[in-house]
Amino acid sequence: MTMRAFLEVAQKQGWLTTIRQEVDPYLELAAVAAALDGRPVLFSQVRGYPGWRVVTGVASDRRYFAKSLGCAPQQLLFELARAFAEPQPAPVVTQAPCQHVVHQPGDLTALPILKHLPDDGGRYITAGVLISRDAERGLNASFHRLLQVGPRQLAARLVENRGTHSAWRKADGDLPVSIAIGVPLHGLLAASMSPEPGLFEMTIAQALAPMPLVRCLGNDLLVPAQAEVILEGRLTQQLTAEGPFVDLTETSDRVRQQPIIEIDRITHRAHPIYHALLPGLLEHKLLMGMPKEPSIFAAVQQVADVKNVHITPGGASWLHAVVQIAKQGPDDGQRAAMAAFAGHGSLKHVVVVDEDVDIFDPHQVEWALATRVQAGRDVMLLRDQPASSLDPSARQQAGQKSRSDKMAVDATIPWDSASGPAHPQHFQRVAFPQVRLSEYDERFR
Ligand SMILES: Cc1cc2nc3c(=O)[nH]c(=O)nc-3n(C[C@H](O)[C@H](O)[C@H](O)COP(=O)(O)O)c2cc1C
Question: Are strands 349-353 and 400-410 parallel, antiparallel or unpaired?
Fold first, then answer.
């Protein structure tokens, strides 16, 4: 489903908020969108950019992904795992909506690029999926925040040793790149995944839902045909200051020297919709965290009967996970926790619960911590582990992987023997019988 088709569905579902009043993309629009975090918001009048609309929040709730993929929110992990295991070649079309209007040379000042917060390094493109070709590994798609540093120049934040970074390091001079903005939700999800090198993320997208691609006009890269905007350009070897900018943890990331992209051409749909993703808020969080759930699931599956995994928004959708298992033996909780760390190297704290705990309800997870845990027995502490650079409390050293302590909590019902708990009934949550309130009070009729 294209992003436009999703907006129509969101309208029918009552999810979409449309702001018709004129809003300035310089420091105003992000504040309005942040106040409506968790909802898709369409800004139909953008000050200084007639003909453009801006959308935020399309990916800010699991229900939106579920709707666009035609599954239940709890099934998303399994849909992602299936697509990851069985990628499909995406069809290449010759006519594409994203190439309807062509500007050559492109001028970035014609795009409603947001300045989000006063202390940011400048205006940032945040929902850009960058497509590049590695000389050995082939096509790669990945998100990169992009600071506008000139009318035709962007500074790209490239995390070291990931797909784009290694293609750029190998390039002898400029590396052709294209940036797609306004990508369908399943394309956004696929672009946030880290498959093994050589697997193009858009083939995972195609396994989730149709993802036609089109060849760019000025380079040999394939981009999502249904995207709203495509920037064609070159990732140069020239560096400039990038940052500060808010990251996933809602704290400000520091300034680094990063490579400049020269933009050669901009193409877009008629009446384009520019997708802006608010840094650190729910859309950013879900896109980062959700693709790691299948990796944790696969790792835990090696050691326990895992039922589901949730990377929680309270843990910046990166540092915390809740793992649900059907316990078969006394040590399953501890083994599941250790496997979860192997499934997601940036994980810092993990809680393992039984099947009767809803892992999407933080109150239920806390209830399991309150009623099933004895710290001396159930808390495991791992000191000085390789960790996420996003954690401001981690020990950071330039040029080296961050280090952090990690903690696992086994919040499953403790077993007294190999066969189970002596008094399982002590640990069960009592439920009152369900009643029809309408039979008792007319307010509920
Ligand atoms: C919203 C969002 C923003 C991201 N921003 C960046 C970024 O600025 N730089 C970066 O290197 N990775 C960023 N990432 C992570 C990459 O998209 C992700 O790690 C990708 O899967 C890397 O895969 P690759 O190794 O195949 O390139 C971002 C992810 C999301 C979801």
Answer: parallel
